[in-house]
């Protein structure tokens, strides 16, 4: 949006999700840094500046959305109620709320934490996103908002809470991990950069980080009470959070995801996930308590998780993994006009192939559904491609 800087989920869905917007702008930031690194010509410097200011505009757009709910942040610190939390999505044009407090699973600590994590990283890299001391005070309040993530039951990154999808919040490892990463990143950071002073520095209590870490380590590789494993944990054990220092625990979690959730088109979010499957009733927000069995072996597969694995391979220097998942993505990506590669949201089992897939998992050819492009996946695909090309440039013989 030219006024707010926010990105709508799609042409048909005009709401702006906090998490999706932050993930979507990461590729723009990455491209801006690439131009900045190789800015030999004035036009490259101009392009780098243009891209960086687009990042600033979106991040400030998200900040404005949250600032409009400053009273909720204050209430939540005391009540930790799902009705007093920041909303998960906003109107793209006005930054106002789009649904009521109890009409959506708004309490998503990981989304707020992701915003703070990226805000900290971008500020440390030289971008000026926070302009005034009032905004500094609000960011400090957001730190207080997420600091108790280790004991706050929320709806998680899939907005559904408990696996049964009955609107029941639960403690999620993905939220605890992202909060830990955000708290570590923003601690003692001057939000005004080189132009700041003591009043623009953010403070974090070390005990809160330790609490998040101990709870996170005790949960992994399990994602929550109801989810034995969740592909969303890739964002915690690797990019962007890197919240787990124990490499044994990282590998155990990663192996669980690949073993139990990976398919031919990506990874399922979690076992018995009914979202967008042919057997899901799209007219109901919640499921019946005995409904999950219907979705077994026909869960939709999300290509976005392969983009995480590409980036994970880059950071680990594992060129074999990078190449494996880049080739896998090339096999399922959609070719749009002028040869543009588009990442679909997910791949689903066709209605007439349900029984076949149920009895013989990963044998049926699936069809793309949902948003195309899925901005979150598209952004990480671009970012992964940039990083992978740089990795191969560094090590051409490998």
UniProtKB/TrEMBL annotation:
Topology of the protein relative to the lipid bilayer: Lipid-anchor
Domain GH15-like: residue ranges: 1-390
Claim: Hydrolase is one of the keywords in the record: no
This protein's UniProt keywords: Calmodulin-binding, Carbohydrate metabolism, Cell membrane, Glycogen metabolism, Lipoprotein, Membrane, Phosphoprotein, Prenylation
Pathway assigned in UniProt: Glycan biosynthesis; glycogen metabolism
Any one GO biological process: glycogen metabolic process
Protein's UniProt keywords contain Manganese: no
Annotated Pfam families: Glyco_hydro_15
InterPro entries per the UniProt record, alphabetical: 6-hairpin_glycosidase_sf, 6hp_glycosidase-like_sf, GH15-like, PHK_A/B_su
GO molecular function, one term: calmodulin binding
One cellular-component annotation, GO: phosphorylase kinase complex
Compartment(s) where it occurs, according to its Swiss-Prot or TrEMBL record: Cell membrane
Family statement drawn from the similarity comment of this UniProt entry: Belongs to the phosphorylase b kinase regulatory chain family.
Function (record text): Phosphorylase b kinase catalyzes the phosphorylation of serine in certain substrates, including troponin I. The alpha chain may bind calmodulin.
The protein, known as: Phosphorylase b kinase regulatory subunit
